[in-house]
Amino acid sequence: MSLKDTSKFLSLLLRHKPQLVGLQLDEHGWADVEDLIRRVNRKRPLDLPTLEQIVATDDKQRYSFSADGKLIRANQGHSIPVDVELAELEPPEILYHGTSERFAASIRDQGLIRKSRLYVHLSSDIDTATKVGKRHGTPKIFLVESGKMFADGHKFFKSVNGVWLTEHVPAIYLKERF
After folding, report:
1. What is the pTM assigned to this prediction?
2. Which range of residues forms the domain containing residue 31?
3. Which terminus has fewer CB within 10 Å in the chain: N or C?
4. CATH classification of the domain holding 66
């Protein structure tokens, strides 16, 4: 089993379906590291050095250990109700959202909606948004007038891995990048 496959499985457990292995997350999304390793080992091999390597080398910095190293959680992207203790922040004037061209018409009409996730994910730069958009085909980049949104009362949060989060981006705050 590759590190990438194990990381994807951890993402599934820590963000969406901890019940697959009977894992308990607290209200902030934290799981006990020893319990996680024991439960994951029922499905595939995992030890502490491998888990530490996944956390340290994940290109999207999806996971964090608690200060004492006894707990682990996903930094954002949850579809289950957890509070990852994000502070509300004023965003930069412009943020970006990368998606696939096939979703562009729906976004033009509805804006960015969180669907099954707790938040819409936004990037600080075009390169990151483009990488995100390429995951599902030809990328389409939307500029988000986040400064205007914030001035109009919308809340923004920044996860520990630099992803900007908000509950919804109405279409009036979006501009297509051609």
Report:
1. 0.74
2. 3-74
3. C
4. 1.10.10.970
